[in-house]
Structures are given as C-alpha cells and as structure tokens.
Amino acid sequence: MSADMEDAFVQAPEHRPKMPLIQATDVPVIDISPMRMLPPGNMDALVSELSVASREWGIFMVVGHGIPEGTVTRALEAGHAFFALPAEKKAVMRRTEAAPAVGYFDEEHLQNIRDWKEVFDFFPHEPPPVGEVEDNLVFKNKWPEEDDLPGFRDALEEYANSMEELAFMLLELIARSLNLRPDQLHGFFGDQTTIMRINRYPPCPRPDLALGNGRHKDSGALTILYQDDVGGLDIRRRFDGEWLRVKPVHGSFVVNIGDLIQVWTNDKYESVEHRVSLNSEKVRFSIPYFLNPSINTIIEPLQEMVSTEDPPKYNSYNWGEFFSTRRKAGFKKHVVQINTETAQFRKQSTDCVE
Ligand SMILES: O=C(O)CCC(=O)C(=O)O
Ligand SMILES: [Fe+2]
C-alpha cells in the first residue's frame, strides 16, 4: 500500500487522522494545590471542577501538583537513554508471548493494527503471581543492567512514587466528588497491577496512514500522562465524534478517567476515546502511569452509584482475567480481532429486565 512503510501499520481509512485537526482549546486545567495544603484548603471549588471535567470530558490537565520538574526531567532523560541502547540490549528485555506484561516492545497491536512506537513498561509494585494456571501472566520486571544505564531504574522509580501520590490524591478528589468516603476507592489498589510506561514515537514517513497509538480507551482506573511539547494526543469529542488535538501545557499532567471509574460510577463519569497521531519530523515522548487495581478485584458498579431508578449498567468481571487477556491480545496481530473493550461487560437491555 505504501512504498516506505509496512502494511501492518496502515489504519483502515475511517481511522486515519485527517489533518489539520481542530485544537481542543478548552480541555479543563485544574489546579489541585488546595489538596496539598496543611491543613487542606477549602476543596469545594476544586471538587466541583473535577466533577464537571470527569462528567463532561473524561480528561483534564492538572497543575499545582507539586511534582518537581527535576523528577520529570530525570525520567525523560532515562527514557531517551533507554531507547538509544543498541537493539541487542533492548532485545534482552523484550516482551515475549509467554511473558507479555512488561519490558521493551515495538510491536504492540492496539485494535489489531501495529502501532508506530516503541515502549518500555514496568510495574512500580510487582504484583503477586496470579495462581497456578499455566496461561497466566508473569509479573516480573525486566530492568536493564545498571552498568548499561546508570540511574535508569532510580529515575523511573522516583517518578512512579510521585505518580502514586498524585494518583491517590486524585482518587480522593474523585471519591469526594461522588459523595463517597474520601478513601473509599483506595482499597481496590492493595496488590495493584499499576503499570508505568515510556512511549517513544519515532518520526513516521506516512503520518496520514499510521498511528502511534490506535484509538482506544484506557481500561484501568486512571491514567496520568506526561507528554513532551511535540503534541500528538488526540481525543474524540463525544457529541459529534470529531477528533481534537490536546495541546501540551508545560508543567501539567494529563489525567484520563479510565473505564474502571466509568463502571464503578455506573456511567456518571465516562472514559474518553483517544489515540496518538504522528508527524514526519519529530520524535515524541510520553510517560503514562496506568493506575490499575489488585489482580483479583471484581469490577462492578459501586452500590452507592446504583438505585432502583438507576440499576447497574454492567455485569461483574474479574480484573485479572481481563487485564491478562488485554495484555496478551496486544502482543501480535490476530486473524480474528479479540474483544478487549470494557464495553463487552455492558448489560444488554434484555439483561436489565430480569
Ligand atoms: O502518548 C500519549 O499521549 C498517549 C498514550 C496512550 O494513550 C497510552 O499509552 O495509553
Ligand atoms: Fe491511552
């Protein structure tokens, strides 16, 4: 199809980016500094801003988070150094079909089409093994040798610790905005399966045909994303399906409401569909932190979020099984696409009438 790019990367015509994109100028930017004051400042305004952003957008940016710029710079520099390693060093850390959870990878297939990117993933807390079943994921990080990349692991762990603190602050704000106990969501994250990732999107000869990340919704609880100033993150506007570019805001993090919050809130908050567009000149880096619950969590709408007038819109599902299927599905192209969307657990209208 294209002389300078393999067909594996080519998106179906309806999913190709149509340039130029509209800039999303009004994605909410939320200053969370009242959360960090001792004693905490008045949070009412903050909680209601967050509620509107989560309800209407499913995505917002946070500033006033208190994370030192140096923490971000060190993680970013570590990422640059990692991808500059010789291919044979990266190959040692490569995801394998038997252990497709974390490590280095450059063949992820979101929506069964290859993404134009390379990634390094790790678990900030290695989760306990799932059990005896042979088919299960191996939860073991694959770090480079310290001699090859001095300070790499420290820089990423420092960044992950900051993200964890921020993630728990956001969970508290979300809980407050739903009139739940401030720590009500915290209990889901005991043996968390959170993943941190560094994405490197190289310049692409055909940004009109390929994507750095195919369209998707994040399946965990929350994603906190650093993006550099190149730009490429696009979100899909709900009311008309139009794709908009999220302009990078220096010093901010992008927060995505994930599918789990959508299910827990029985659709009061909704995750946002997004993707990454490419360009032919610049390398782009981003660092997502995917806050995921404990492996054996049963996911279903929270009792407090349902009523006789608003019955549960989702069937229960097991996070570990879903997580494992989704990680495995993205490992390669399948003849028949595997359904790894949270939407598969939505009750059909006939299920509701029991
Ligand atoms: O690189 C980005 O801006 C977004 C990445 C993303 O959506 C993901 O890794 O899930
Ligand atoms: Fe994403």
TrEMBL record:
GO terms for molecular function: metal ion binding; oxidoreductase activity. Gene3D superfamilies: B-lactam Antibiotic, Isopenicillin N Synthase, Chain. Keywords: Iron, Metal-binding, Oxidoreductase. Residues 192-293 form the Fe2OG dioxygenase domain. Pfam families: 2OG-FeII_Oxy, DIOX_N. SUPFAM superfamilies: Clavaminate synthase-like. Its cofactor is L-ascorbate. It comes from the Eukaryota. Belongs to the iron/ascorbate-dependent oxidoreductase family. This is Fe2OG dioxygenase domain-containing protein. It comes from Urochloa decumbens.
